[in-house]
Amino acid sequence: MPTLRSATLSPAPAATPSPTAATTPRSAKRRLTPRRAADSADSAQFTAPHTSPLAGAGPMGTPKMLSASPKSSRKRLYGDLVAAEKPRWNPRDPAQMQAVKEALHVATVPSCGVVCRDDEQRRVLEFCKACVEQERAGSLYVCGCPGTGKTLSINKVKERVSRWADEMGLDTPDELSINCTNLGSTSDIFSKILAKFQVRKKASGKLSPLQQLQSMFSHKESAPRRMLLVVVDEMDYLITRDRAVLHDLFMLTTHQFSRCILIGIANAIDLADRFLPKLESLNCKPLVITFRAYSKDQISNIINHRLKALDYDVFEPLAIEFCARKVAAASGDMRKALGVCRSAVEVFESRLQDSSKQGFGVVTFDHMDTALSKVFKPVVVNSILCLPQHQQMVLCALANTFQHCKKKATTLGELNKSYIEICRSSQVPAVGMLEFSNMCMILSDQGYLKLGQSKEDKLRRVTLQIDISDITFAFKDSRFFQKCLEQPKF
Ligand SMILES: Nc1ncnc2c1ncn2[C@@H]1O[C@H](COP(=O)(O)OP(=O)(O)O)[C@@H](O)[C@H]1O
Ligand SMILES: [Mg+2]
Questions:
Q1: Which GO terms describe its biological process (predicted)?
Q2: What distance in angstroms lies between residue 126's CA and the mean position of ligand 1's atoms?
Q3: What is the Å distance from ligand 1's center to 335 Cα?
C-alpha cells in the first residue's frame, strides 16, 4: 500500500509540465487565483510543521495520519513565491492517486488538526480541565447534525486533556470511549464503565452493573482514586421509551464520590429538549455544546486543509467552492462533502482512462458537477426509485410516449399500448386494463400524472406532471429500464 511519502516522492512525469495545460486560460486563471481559500490568519496554528511519523500504509478504511512532508512545511514558510513551484499532480501515478483518495477519506484523521471548531474544542477542553483540576465529576452533552465534526473534535480534545494533565503534574484521567452502535443492549453501557473501574476487583454478583456503580460512587471508601473520562458517542442509540438509561447515565456524575467525567455525543438536536428538562429536575443538567452545520466557507476551508498534506494541487478552486456551496445548502455535512470530492476524483480518473490525451489536468468544476448530481438527486427521482416495478414501467411508457411524439397529453388507451410494448420487450407479464387504470390512479394521487375526467376509461386524458428528465435520470443506472426507455429523437 503506498504511503503519502511514496506518493509525493515517486518519480513524476508530472514534473514535466503538460504543454496543453500550461497554455490554457484555465490553468493561467488557476495560477492567478489565491492558492488556497483556507490560508486564513486564524488557521495559522494548524500549519506548523508536523513531527508525527508518516503512517499512510494501512488499508483504506482504517484511521491513518496524513503528514505533510518537510518540503511542504518549507513551502508554507516561503509563501506564494515557492507555491508557484508546486509540482504538478500526476493522476496517472497510482501512488499519488491513492494519496489523494486517502486525504479525502472519512476514516483518515486529518493531520492538519480540526479546523473551524476552535471555539467548541476550547469549551470542551475547559470543562475537562476544570473537572480534572478539581477532581470532580461532571457531564457534558455535545449535539449536532451528522458530519459536523463532533467525534473528531472530541477525540482531539481527549488527547489534549491527557497531555495537559501530564504537563501540569496532575493525575491523568483514565479514558473510555464507547460507541453506542456497538452495544448489544442499552444497559451494557454500565458494565463497560464498571469494567474500566474494576480492572482487578471481582464483580459483585447480586447487584446490576448500574447498582454497583451507584454504590461505588456513594461511599468514600469504595470510590476509585483516578478520574475516568468517558466519551459516549452516538448516544441517540441509548434512547429508550422512558429514557431511563440516559438519565441513569448522567445521574452517575451526581453522586458525592463520583469519578466520572462524562461526555455524551448525539446527532439528534432535539434530544436535549426531550431529556434535559428531566435531568434539570434531577439536578444533573449537563453543560450543552451544540455543533452547528458547517457553512460553505468552513467546508472549503476544511477540504483545502486536508489537501494541504499533499504536495500538489488536485482540484480547480472553483470545483471545491461548488461542492462546498451545494453541501452547505443541503446539510453542512462534512462526511458528504468529502464523499462528493472523492467521487469527483473518481469521475476525473475514469475520464482520464478513457482519454488518450497526454496532459494530466486537475479535477474541474465539470467533474464536481457530475459527482454532485449523483449524490443530490432531486427528491422526485428518489421517490420514482421507490415505486413498485409496474408503476415505474407506466412512467417509462409515459416518458416514451411524450419523448417520441413530442405531445403534452395522451389517452389511457395509448398509454396502455406503450406499457404493453414495454412489458413485451422486457418479457414481463403485463397487468390487465383494470389494474392498469388503478395504477394510473395511484400515480395520479401521488402527483406523477394527471387523469382527465372522461367517463370512457380508454379515452381518459393523461398528462405527465413531472419532467421526463427526472424519469430518465432515475433509470439511468438500471439496465432493465435503459432497455425500456426509448432514446430521444432529435
Ligand atoms: N473540522 C474538521 N476538519 C477536518 N475534517 C473534519 C472536520 N470536521 C469533520 N471532518 C471530517 O468529516 C468527517 C465526519 O466528521 P465526524 O467528526 O465523524 O462528524 P460527526 O461525529 O459530527 O458525525 C470525518 O471524516 C472528519 O474527519
Ligand atoms: Mg460522530
A1: cell division; DNA replication initiation; mitotic DNA replication checkpoint signaling
A2: 21
A3: 6
- Which residues, including other chains, have CB under 8 Å from residue 260's CB and lie 6 or more apart? 137, 139, 193, 217, 227, 228, 230, 252, 253
CA-closest residue to ligand 1 atom 16: 149
The Cβ of residue 429 has, within 10 Å, a number of other Cβ atoms equal to 7
Cα 332 to ligand 2 centroid, rounded to whole Å: 14
Please tell me the pTM assigned to this model. Answer: 0.69
Q: Which three cell numbers stand for residue 461?
A: 386524458
Ligand 1 interacting residues, C-beta cut-off 6 A: 106, 110, 114-117, 144, 146-152, 302, 306, 334-335, 338
Residue 106 CA, closest ligand 1 atom number: 25
Instruction: List, for residues 252-307, the tens digit of each pLDDT value.
Output: 999 999 999 999 999 987 777 777 788 888 888 899 999 999 999 999 999 999 99
Q: In this structure, which long-range contacts are made by residues 164-167, counting pairs with CB atoms below 8 Å and at least 24 apart in sequence?
A: 164/125, 164/129, 165/132
Question: Which ligand approaches the C-alpha of residue 233 most closely?
Answer: 2
Q: How far is the CA of 129 from the centre of ligand 1 (A)?
A: 23
CATH of domain 381-484: 1.10.10.10
The pLDDT of residue 284 is 83
- Residue in 335, 341, 342 to alter for ligand 1 test, most ligand atoms within 8 A of Cβ: 335
Say if residues 236 and 246 touch (Cβ distance below 8 Å): no
Domain limits, the chain: 4-114+296-375, 118-291, 381-484
Which residue's alpha carbon is nearest to atom 15 within ligand 1? 149
The number of beta carbons lying within 10 Å of the beta carbon of residue 432 is 9
Topology adopted by domain 4-114+296-375: Helicase, Ruva Protein; domain 3 (1.10.8)
Identify the bridge partners of residue 260 per DSSP, sorted by sequence position. Answer: 228
Is the CATH code 3.40.190.10 the one for domain 118-291? no
Kindly give the interhelix angle for 317-330 and 296-307, rounded to the nearest 10 degrees: 130
Question: Residue 430 and residue 421: Cα distance in Å, rounded?
Answer: 9
Pick the range with the lowest mean pLDDT from 156-160, 184-188, 297-301, 459-463: 459-463
For residue 291, which atom of ligand 1 is closest to its CA?
A: 22
